[in-house]
Amino acid sequence: MKILFIASEMYPLIKTGGLADVAGSLPKALRELGKDVRVLLPAYSEVKAQLPQATVVSELHLLGLPVQILATTVPGSDIPLWLLDAPKWFDRPGNPYLHPDGTPWHDNDERFGALCWAAYRIALNQLGLDWQPDIIHCNDWQTGLVPALLSLKSPHPATIFTIHNLAYQGTFPKTSHARLELPSLLWSPEGLEFHDQLSFIKGGLVYADRINTVSPTYAHEIQTPRFGCGLEGLLRHRRQRLSGILNGIDTEKWDPGRDPLITQTFDSKTLERKGSNKKALQEHFGLPSGQNRILIAFIGRLVSQKGIDLILKTLPSLLEHSFQWVFLGSGSSEYEHSLLYWSRRHPEQVAVHIGFDEPLSHLVEAGADLFLMPSRFEPCGLNQMFSQRYGTVPIVHRTGGLADTVEDAIPGKMKGATGVSFEFAEAGALLEAIKRAWLLYEHSPTWRQLQRSGMTKDFSWRRSASEYCALYQQAIKDNTPMAGRPSEG
Ligand code: ADP
User: Fold this and answer.
1) Rounded CA gap, 270 and 30, in Å?
2) 146, 213, 254, 306: least CB-packed within 10 angstroms?
3) In 366-481, where do the E strands start and end?
């Protein structure tokens, strides 16, 4: 089976979130299952700088601009990696989607439209690369036009569209449709049009042979108005083609038994050693050391999706107790300022690092006792899995991938429990959950059991990669020129 995997970010080359982790891991896991998988990524300046050996293998024009396809391999593997090199669009430092002032790049329609056209040409073996995929695996809105374009060609490879976050849809003014040289056949409310705008994500949702999200619960949730971001009707319409496959995590990189980024390695049998990491974390942040204070951590984007406002609401009342708090993240300036305010007021209890710091995130996971993820919605989420691997008990809102990966510790039903979860994304519910976790913490045998259950769970990509292979087979079966058209029930 030949698979072309298309993404707009990929760990370790460029990363803003979980999509990069998936793109960095899933192709490798598929390769281990013997699949011929290749990856297409934009040649951002940061990516090119890390891959000086990449060579030109194809030259073409996209949207009137001469561009090149560069070839190399994914770092640490023999997986072919193609880069769409178009300096006008991708030679920009920093975040792949945003201008340094935090607003989207003005030409994101052209940038990712060109990526989709390049994928289309590779899919149809038009670039002299001497390779034609059976499956095109698209990820998020940046790749959404690929299934739409391919739907007009018969025969064409089967298409999969994975939703990593439905909230980001890639909508642009109607004029983009012509500017991106999209066939007029695709412009209709049943096609790429969304409230008189061009919607990239609809290209994936309407036309892909199979759609999936990164957890089974999120696949159900997005069919409801609460989580569907206006697309719930379409998703309900396509429910027979919609499923969920949980992300795995990189269990080698995130292994407390041999993680070089933490102070003291440990495993489920040597949990007492975890304390050295707590001490190192406290020292790193200038918090008073001591094993008797519960250390609660948060890592992630500081946006309302992640429920950071709920944490800020519970913080004042919990500061009366001896908890310590460590926050690592960046995002909305309102939340950044609020966290910094609390850390200035209570430097002995609240520590904040604004920014993206991967090595530090390992020490935080290893050193904390509790990890908070009160996300309003969470397609999959990774940190709750990292936490369980590191014996750091997660407290999560029971939604999306958090519901699928954390087993709630209910009194009398502790077998297999790995964390604490709460039903409603409200500050009161979060506060209750933290108090419940506190009670569990006070009873060491129960706490150890919770930690050990989490540490021994299988979060590997092997399991997910096999499920993707089954989905690819389904997509090949479903691949008809009319896939996704309104007649489908
Ligand atoms: P999302 O993709 O919605 O941001 P995920 O939980 O799926 O959330 O993935 C986020 C990834 O980015 C995780 O690997 C997480 O550890 C990492 N991350 C987020 N913020 C930071 C930060 N400030 N420093 C280090 N790593 C971070």
Assistant:
1) 33
2) 254
3) 370-373, 393-397, 420-422
The structure tokens listed for 285 are: 């942040």
316-362 pLDDT, tens per residue?
999 999 899 999 999 999 999 999 999 999 999 999 999 999 999 99
Q: What is the pTM of this model?
A: 0.92
Specify the fold of 2-248+462-478.
Answer: Rossmann fold (3.40.50)
Residue 103 burial by CB count (10 A; 0-12/13-18/19+): exposed, middle or buried? exposed
Q: Which of 363, 369, 389 is nearest to 442 (CA)?
A: 369
Whether 160 contacts 136, CB under 8 Å = yes
CB-facing half-sphere around the CA of 240: CA atoms within 13 A: 6
Q: Which pLDDT tens digit goes with each residue over 97-121?
A: 999 988 999 999 999 999 999 999 9
Q: How many CA atoms lie within 13 A of 390 on its CB side?
A: 37
Q: Is the CB of 303 under 6 A from ligand 1?
A: no
Q: Measured from the CB, is residue 12 less than 6 Å from ligand 1?
A: no
Helices (H), 292-332: 308-318
Domain spanning 271-457, CATH class:
alpha beta
Structure tokens at 422: 């709460």
Q: Which residues of the chain have pLDDT under 70?
A: 480-489
Q: Where in the chain is the domain with CATH 3.40.50.2000?
A: 2-248+462-478, 271-457
Which ligand 1 atom is the nearest neighbour of the CA of 21?
14
Ligand 1: residue of 162, 301, 384 to mutate (most ligand atoms within 8 A of CB) is 301
Mutate to test the pocket of ligand 1, among 383, 390, 404 (most ligand atoms within 8 A of CB): 383
Beta pairing, strands 171-173 & 197-199: antiparallel
